[in-house]
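User: Hey, my collaborator sent me this sequence without any context and asked if I could get a structure. I don't really work with proteins. Can you help?
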Amino acid sequence: MKYAIFQDTRIGKRAYQQDRVGHWQTRDSLFVAVADGMGGHAHGDVAAQLTVDCLGAAFRTEAKPKIADPDMFLFRSIGRAHAMILHQAQRQKLGQSFADSPRTTIVACLVQDGYAYWSFVGDSRLYVIRDGRIVTRTRDHTPVQVLIDAGRIREEAAATHPDRNKLLQCLGGPRAPKIEPSANTRLHKGDVVLLCSDGFWGPLTQRQLLMGLLGRPLAKAMPELMALAEARAGPRCDNLSAIAIEWQDKAVAAPVEPETVPMADLPTDIQDFSATEPDFMRMSDEDIERAIADIKRALKKNDPGVR
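Assistant: No problem. I've predicted the 3D structure and written it out in structure-token form, which is a compact way to encode the shape of the chain:
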């Protein structure tokens, strides 16, 4: 695999950094994630860190050197992160009550065999940018996104809408998240896959994002976009985080499509596990303790300084 990658996270004007980012790779696979701990709830940073640790440990365990089933991998690892947040919150008595438990958003993307696979919960986003245009992006789990999709407000109005910071889905909340069906797309040479928290995408217009990336290496373009997002957000700037991947391999051969099926503008497949009972709903405390121990072992193996 040939790609360039950029990763950064900044505290903005907040007292604490609650965003967490991570990327892991093998010879044949790359996995990246951005988690945005929710500032309106206690210990959002704990929820975000546990989520990223959980996803990274799952990748290290299952990528040999590729993930056998990308769709199920995303579904299970995100769901188990939710279960572990609840377990740790109860065990360590984090938050004043269950209603105030640690919470986080998550967006994660797996790249292998020339395809990107992704899933998300909340309003941390994934963009696929090709030839100076956004060919796909995730749809936020927010009341504002519902209004936009219904045609009741324009997307440009979202930045000033009074409900812009409200979420319909997150990890760590009292209700199990409806994990977004994983999606995938075939990557073309020069594509940029961007994962980011709302502190990054919120202050930027679509035009600013696209023009900032157009025809420029990530190492130059992304720091400037991070600085622009900080400047535009002003004294209330949120934590902001981003991971960007520029795909530098040729596109793999396109799958053969039946002639009777109309081709979409972007060939994106959806895998929906909504009919499947999530396995994380059946995890006992002992299962979670073992999973947490596995995470610690995986982290220690990767970084001997971890205890």
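In plain terms: Residues 70-92 form the longest helix (23 residues). You can pass these tokens on to your collaborator as they are.
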